[in-house]
Amino acid sequence: MSMYELTLAAYESSTIKLEDLPPIRAVALSSGLSADLLVENPPTLFLQVDPLKWAKHKNVKQAWGKLRDKYQLDQHAWEKATWDFSVMTIGRDWSCVGSMSKARKLGWTEYADTGDELEDTFREVFSPAEWLRRDF
């Protein structure tokens, strides 16, 4: 089974209505957003492929087992994977602005260009991806 077929076989979408109102609500009135529907309604997550469901599929677990055994991977990593975090991260349709202020206060002084880092990461990932294609 190819990686593409493996993904399609485990394709299950999800729409998750969150219970809590969005954090922007705390400053909505002072920002002129108080009547905005995005502020008044709880957010909804939209996932074309739900990682929680995907990880439970028999064929996905079998593929993981094959990779784990061949490359001496740590089973603990799979068992402790943060699927909930990935659901929240890839399922949201709103922006998330991060700040480095706290890290700077704690002594982090490094800088990395996001585009350069993505390119480097993809270069590192694509070679192993070729190995995976051979395995499936």
TrEMBL record:
Protein origin, superkingdom: Eukaryota
Protein name: NAD dependent epimerase/dehydratase family protein
Source organism: Penicillium canescens
